[in-house]
What does this fold into?
Amino acid sequence: MDNQYDLLANRIRTYLDENNLGDFSIDNFEEKYKFFYDMFSPEILENLDGKEARDRIFMHDGDRNNLCYLIEASPEYRSFCGGIRGGTAYKFSLFKKESGQWATGSSKKNKILSDDESIEIATRIRDAMVDGANYIRNTALNTVEDYVKLGKKLEEIFSNCPVKPTNSWIHKYYSIIFPEYIPICHKDEMKKDMIRKFSLEPLNDFWANDGQLYLLSKKSGIKFYSLFDESIVSLFYKWENHMWTDKFDKRNLVGKNFIKYWAFTPGILANRADLCYDNSLMAMGWNYLGDLNQYEDNFDVAIADIIKKNEKLKMKPTSALRSLHGIYKDIKAGDIICIRRGLTTIIAVGRVTEESKYFYDETIDNSTEDPFYQLRDGINWYRLEEEYKLKNSKFLRDTLYEITDKRIINTIRQFEDKIPQEKIPEQQIVTDNSLSRNIIYFGAPGTGKSYTLNKDRKKLILNDDNYERVTFHPDYSYAHFVGSYKPVSSENGISYDYVPGPFMRTLVKAYRNPGENYLLIIEEINRANVAAVFGDVFQLLDRDKTGSSRYPIEASEDIKKYMEMELDENYKKIMIPSNMFIWATMNSADQGVFPMDTAFKRRWKFKYFGIDNNEDLITDMTVNLNGNEISWNELRKAINEELLNYKINEDKLIGPFFAFDEYVGENIPIDEFKETFKNKILMYLFEDVARSKRNILFSGVGNKGNYIYSRICDEFDRKGVEIFCNNITEQFIDDNGD
It folds into this structure.
């Protein structure tokens, strides 16, 4: 075991030497240790009388200088030496309630104390804390066995206390008083998780695990608190979201290649395997759950409740949870997926690529019966030439599960070499200046602005994770767009955290991956007050020849902290890098929109869409209306010509995709045409465009019905385009046929 510590410690020492870090001491940390010791050292606590000890240690009357408040909630110490937030004040076994009464026990079973009773409990806890500190100070701690003995002695010292030495706040107290001996992990499970991330095996003893971490620190010659610096942990482990909270996964150990093997059946007897082969993905049902990303904070509980309700189950849906958790999160790059048919047949094997990700999509699977919308892409499949029958093993019945049967794994390994190695095309950064960094697509409704933007997007980026879409509205603000502190609910209650908006999320991604393009799409940009929404970010829109911001701006403290947390670097100024694009759309015909000032407009390229833009895509869209073959394109153009006679501006005319865009290249069903024409075209003409010309435009209605929208609709059902004036009607009605 010592040899293993030496190997790990050598890796740390090499890093320290290469970066001239010495023992990795941090002046700010050393000052905090000294400040805390000067306030709450065992010698100081020991010399306090009972009432003084109570008030110095425990929370009361809004005081912020007591020990418990300082180590849990104060800005200076709540994260220093490991956080212990969560739960209630009852975890300290003594505190003063807002009612002015001292209390002990738990939130469910508590007791109100007299003043003397509170002092008696405080004294017992103080005495145990001091005695425990004296024992730690006077005991040689050099081996794991020494720490096991320490744990037993502390249990004995605290035996007459309502708290235990393993309570997180007691452990944190000792870690600050004795930073060279006690680690900054205070919860047993988190400590075990961190030990595994250092490629060690945790022991089933709270204090023995302290000993393991101490030995690694001592042999490395590093300050104990710096052993948990992200730069040190990253030498051994690659986490995804957060070093402390990400659960250990052996496949993320640095320098070790662990893969998992999974059994998967797409549909009944794998009848949906072709969907997987054709699209290089995995697919499963439970569509009523929607996008699984929405359950991130409470995945198992939330999903289990919904499945039980929908499928009328009494038991926990363990199999479904295992399958959904697998496709959503557990599968990693390099894993091998085996498609099974029944319990004994292998029909295909696949490898998970680096680009693989979960997503929910209702468009890929065109099956009319039981389509699958829960998907994971980036799977390179090899379809066996002949199905393989297992001889001495059987698969489980789960839709997706990790295989642990060594015999099945060994069988699958026979086919691994035949899995194709081609990867999903890598993202290429675009250097072609024809795709502008800041561009606004604008024009009349239905002219294909969003359609063209999406076509351009596919030229710019290949990975859907590299763009984000947001829609502006009158109440949209800087806090929504850039970010702000907001209340965030968690199992520990409500806290205020910085929540980034789409601009900051995209900016951080672009900083993190300079070799990839990132796109922020803003729909309806002029429906919000852009000057207020962009704020000081407006200055960054001015780009130089490289595409980067010409003039960086000072980052606010909130943004500095957020970017440092995400990028491990302190940014005093921020700028938009050349690989971040911002594209927007706006309808110049919309009512109630906000004007843009000249300075804002100057920083954008504007791409105008004329009223007949992309009309070639709809020339074949026709409908048989009352015996007349009507071309949708010709009808809208006839209406537009009449509107121009009324001096209506071009941006209020009807574009090719104002309606029926889902029927491009097809005949429009008559019922669909009538309903959409009434609800979109006629409503738009009646309420917005031709409000003052209703009697002329709808002169075919007669009997003053052209002033009543419901009568216009009724007449349209009966007469079709004959509700309009002669200038329009005569282009579509054959008088010779009457």
In short: Residues 423-433 have pLDDT under 50 and may be disordered. The two ends are 100 Å apart (CA to CA). The CA atoms of residues 334 and 352 lie 5 Å apart. DSSP finds 26 helices and 22 strands in the chain.
